[in-house]
Amino acid sequence: MDLTQRFNKQVYKIAVSTIRQFDEQVSSIEGILKLTLGEPDFNTPEHVKTAAHQAIDDNFSHYSGMAGLTDVREAAALFMQEKYGVRYDAASEVLVTVGATEAISASLLAILEPGDKLLMPAPIYPGYEPVITLANAEPVYIDTRSNNFVLTPQMIEDAMAEHGDQVKAIILNYPSNPTGVTYNREEVKAIADVVKKYPIFVISDEIYSELTYEDEHVSIAEFIPEQTILINGLSKSHAMTGWRIGFIFGPNVLIAEIIKVHQYLVTAASTISQKAAVRALIEGIHDAAVMKEEYRERRDFVYEQMTNIGFEVARPNGAFYIFAKIPEGYEQDSMKFCVDLAQKQAIAIIPGIAFGQEGEGYVRISYAADLDTLKEAMRRIANYMQA
């Protein structure tokens, strides 16, 4: 019996992430050096691991409530107030999720209906579109290449003028994956001033908020909290990708609906991970500072090297990515370029097409690797470009 054609038809319209596909494709190359995945190369801080051990010893091995443990929600609310000046009631406006990925899925599935449109500055992290597709909604990409990947208020106005009442929400991801671009206070406020004119949600994915290198991070929730579904987590700030702890912050009327979706997706986040998260958020409130300084040094090195090699790079001021335009005279199909690079020099970087058509002709480098590894990576890329 063949049941392959009896799935939800929307499933056939999505695929495994190109990032993951490419990473697996090149992994078998002998001696491959990979700057592919967006994962910190640091270990989780020791005091956070100690808290997890203690939670196991204390038998915190049962379900938490759907929204998460009270103490982690209180700690998360305090963290956001201390760091970014945004205030949330821990009891009704904070939801603990299984990483930022589940936070994105729960939020999108809670608000989207068939036929809705959702604005997204592009190129953009590829984790949003498949969920939008599953909801039978439609992404509308706003091409930011002409402005060094910076979304402007006028771009939003133009998109709203074209798509009007069909627009349900806009996604912001800053600091950005893949470009590393972020926004200063004036830019965030200008975007907020446009968005607040329309009855739309803002899903603001601020998972890299602790990794900004020039200006302090400013959340759009500071300006339009009633419209903002704010997503964050501990994966990047505390090198806790495998612990799977994310957060949704928002007005209680929004959280009350999103929690319904969250419950049926996952029930609740891992209790052990939540107890570790309390330690990370309180005692480890500044844990990202040491990592950030190392990332800054790596960014400066990779930016300089890639520019010297001949790539055009919009200087990133957040996250841990370099998004570089392939020079003229070389293969502009980013997938072909990256496969050939991997095969000839055993260095793997992500093809820009993984981030949408607006990413074609670019490559993404994750500099979440030690400086010696990055030096060798730059040497191999330089050798390839000079061959």
Helix content: 25-40%
The biggest beta sheet reads: 7 strands, mixed
- If strands are numbered along the chain, what order do they take across the biggest sheet? 2-8-7-6-5-3-4
Strand content: 5-15%
Shape: globular
| CA-based gyration radius | 21 Å
Number of strands: 13
The domain tally reads 2
User: CATH homologous superfamily of the largest domain, by name?
Assistant: Type I PLP-dependent aspartate aminotransferase-like (Major domain)
SSE arrangement, N to C = HEHHEHEHEHEHEEEHHHEEHEEEH
| Distance separating the two termini | 54 Å
The CATH architecture name of the largest domain reads 3-Layer(aba) Sandwich
Mean pLDDT: 97
Tell me the number of helical segments per DSSP (H or I, 4 or more residues long). Answer: 12
Identify low-pLDDT runs: none
- CATH domain class name of the largest domain: Alpha Beta
**Class based on secondary structure composition and strand pairing:** alpha/beta
CATH topology name of the largest domain: Aspartate Aminotransferase, domain 2
Characteristics:
PyrdxlP-dep_Trfase_major, Aminotransferase, 4-stranded antiparallel β-sheet, transferase, about 375 residues, Aspartate Aminotransferase, domain 2, 2 domains, pyridoxal phosphate, about 15% strand, 12 helices, globular, Aspartate Aminotransferase, domain 1
